[in-house]
Amino acid sequence: MIESKVAEINEEREIVDNDDGPENPLDFESVEAANAMDDFQRINLVEVKQTDLQSMITKLNTDQKRVFDIITNKMDTTDSNADVLRCFFFIKPTMTIDFYHMFGSPPCSLVEMTFAALGLESKVKHHFVDFLANEQFTPEYLKMNPQHTAPTIVDDGFVLWESRAISKYLIDKYSKGNTLYPEDVQARAVIDQRLDFDIDTLYGRFTEYYFTHFFEGKPLEESGVKKIQEALGFLDTFLANTKYAAGSELTLADLALLVTVSVIEAGNISVKEYPNIVRWYDLVKSTAPKLAAINDKYVKDFIDFFDGLAKK
Ligand SMILES: N[C@@H](CCC(=O)N[C@@H](CS)C(=O)NCC(=O)O)C(=O)O
């Protein structure tokens, strides 16, 4: 194991040495360094500006610092003549994505499913935002997201809210070209169309009907149900022509619509009258059972949350 690591590194060193860069001073014959390396993910040969390097050093944990010291003890990292310092940099993937979420929140379910679909779970640091305690209105939260909504993510300092925007960003950043949100412009356009239909028409009409009742005391109007049923009819028609919501593959559109259709059911509006929705709903759940289980948990919490409000 160690030998193969050392061989791998030596191969890289040759590339560096042939690249007119400063000689790489690493001594990977050091068993300690090689051992430690097993725990570390080599990001790549990177060009590190002096200023960036200093800030990277401050972010290292103890183990990383130890390896960094082994790597750099022969390297003059303060050489002011070296505008750009070439070095091997080993960083354990401790980088976290801060995820601000609320109990039973449908848009948070979409982001949580996206994390799982991309295998990012271990990078995610959850921060529960207590909606009932108005934690989204703290000065710190408002500074981060003036719109005071969850989900919100902070990815290495980059702040983003709006669940669909977050999911697209995660796919583009961590799994570019993933079939959930492929790069083909027309495939994307159809997915975007379904996502916009969802946020504006299907989920939009549901929130207008359901949330305004619980949060603004409006009655649960039959006209609201009719509007949701009309939107379900649109979705049923879309699904008459495609296997999944936006074509022959499972995409982000399916995940967003899965969230919406399941909360519509949780809001006691039946979807059984829509045969294509029923077929698609089962298909999505059987295609992505792990993601469906995440959503089921959110739906259960959603029901508990509104049951709790109804009892108040
Ligand atoms: N369109 C947004 C909706 C976000 C949203 O309204 N989230 C609710 C929880 S489900 C929230 O944060 N409510 C607290 C507030 O608006 O103050 C998205 O998809 O992320």
UniProtKB/TrEMBL annotation:
<dbReference type="GO" id="GO:0004364">
    <property type="term" value="F:glutathione transferase activity"/>
</dbReference>
<dbReference type="InterPro" id="IPR040079">
    <property type="entry name" value="Glutathione_S-Trfase"/>
</dbReference>
<dbReference type="Pfam" id="PF13417">
    <property type="entry name" value="GST_N_3"/>
</dbReference>
<dbReference type="Pfam" id="PF00043">
    <property type="entry name" value="GST_C"/>
</dbReference>
<feature type="domain" description="GST C-terminal">
    <location>
        <begin position="184"/>
        <end position="302"/>
    </location>
</feature>
<dbReference type="InterPro" id="IPR004045">
    <property type="entry name" value="Glutathione_S-Trfase_N"/>
</dbReference>
<dbReference type="GO" id="GO:0006749">
    <property type="term" value="P:glutathione metabolic process"/>
</dbReference>
<dbReference type="InterPro" id="IPR010987">
    <property type="entry name" value="Glutathione-S-Trfase_C-like"/>
</dbReference>
<dbReference type="InterPro" id="IPR004046">
    <property type="entry name" value="GST_C"/>
</dbReference>
<feature type="domain" description="GST N-terminal">
    <location>
        <begin position="95"/>
        <end position="178"/>
    </location>
</feature>
<protein>
    <submittedName>
        <fullName>(apollo) hypothetical protein</fullName>
    </submittedName>
</protein>
<comment type="subunit">
    <text>Homodimer.</text>
</comment>
